[in-house]
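Re-run requested by the PI after the first attempt was lost when the workstation crashed. Everything re-entered from the original request form. Ligand of interest: 2-OXO-4-methylpentanoic acid.
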Amino acid sequence: MLERWRVAVLPGDGIGPEVTAQAVRVLEAVAAHRGVALEVREGLIGGAAYDAVGRPLPDETLDLCRASDAVFLGAVGGPKWGALPADKRPEAALLGLRKALGLYANLRPVTPFDALLPASPLKSAYLAGANVLIVRELTGGLYFGEKRRTRTPEGEEEAVDTLVYRTSEIERVVRRAFELARGRRKRVTSVDKANVLESSRLWREVATRVAAEYPDVELEHLLVDAFAMQLILNPRRFDVVVTENLFGDILSDEAAVLTGSIGMLPSASLADGRFGLYEPVHGSAPDIAGEDRANPLAAILSVALMLRHTFGDEAAAAAVEDAVKRVLESGVRTIDLAEPGDPVVGTKAMGDRVVAALEAALVK
Ligand SMILES: NC(=O)C1=CN([C@@H]2O[C@H](COP(=O)(O)OP(=O)(O)OC[C@H]3O[C@@H](n4cnc5c(N)ncnc54)[C@H](O)[C@@H]3O)[C@@H](O)[C@H]2O)C=CC1
Ligand SMILES: CC(C)CC(=O)C(=O)O
Ligand SMILES: [Mg+2]
């Protein structure tokens, strides 16, 4: 294990800084317990960076990330910056950062906590034990293809986005999915739209080829529309799901519903090796920003992923996840998770509870 953890922290916009503050407290608690020197260095990104220096992804931020073992990111974006040219928008910074750091595999574990299962036994039976790992390709596809505005010969405005995948891009992310499946239930579902899209036909061919290297892991192909339905109908049938960038973005927000809130879904964006960027799946939630109402658990669970994938500290990762579990079992909820009558706490108070549960477990 490393004795020094160098973490770049990019709080970003909206609720980004609020949830990041709680995530950093959890990381600090773990590092203090482990006796590890934690170097947290903050950088600017998104609208906050645009406002401060006129660019959403300053070179200093990229340099900081490259000089770190891991990056934690809150969220970027908001209506304030919506009218800027595409390359100045906060979202462009996030895409640019993912590309520049080679973060091609985005892991989005979807693991409903028992304490949040619906009250009806029928509904809980359908969700109990569901544990899906979405592996989303993160540096290719529509988000990175050529974009342009043109005019038709008739003078009508036209917009073009291009969806490009090459074999090597598909191969590495599918291989990552198979490797992860080996440590789980040994089942990969590859999601595409091969009945219509040429890029999906290539995706399916490559996935089938890679699967031959993993005879112990079962592969199934599903079309994205059918998968979107099956995910809700029968979530327990899925183990690892691998898919392209846009499909993975949409399907993971859909999957968040299984956990009770988008505020529960963490993510790890990985390059080859141990380097990674960790962020909640949700955005900057401008509708609740600044009100201490955001659920910080997705951000805190992203710290668990950092401990697991970058710092190789499985015990600490499990301790953070267990602290979240115990806090939820105690009944407290942020507003997004609350049923009538539940004790509701704010962002910071939820962070307090998790840190207290974690410290109690770590000193034992
Ligand atoms: N990784 C990132 O930085 C992402 C940024 N965005 C950006 O965020 C901005 C807002 O996008 P939206 O479509 O509204 O998506 P969003 O994920 O920010 O919010 C969707 C809904 O979920 C709620 N929500 C989100 N996170 C929550 C949390 N932690 N606790 C409680 N409720 C939460 C919000 O209040 C809102 O009602 C946009 O500028 C978008 O581009 C969107 C997704 C990812
Ligand atoms: C904000 C976008 C650039 C991406 C997004 O929605 C995501 O990564 O979940
Ligand atoms: Mg998204």
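Saved to the shared folder this time. The two ends are 21 Å apart (CA to CA).
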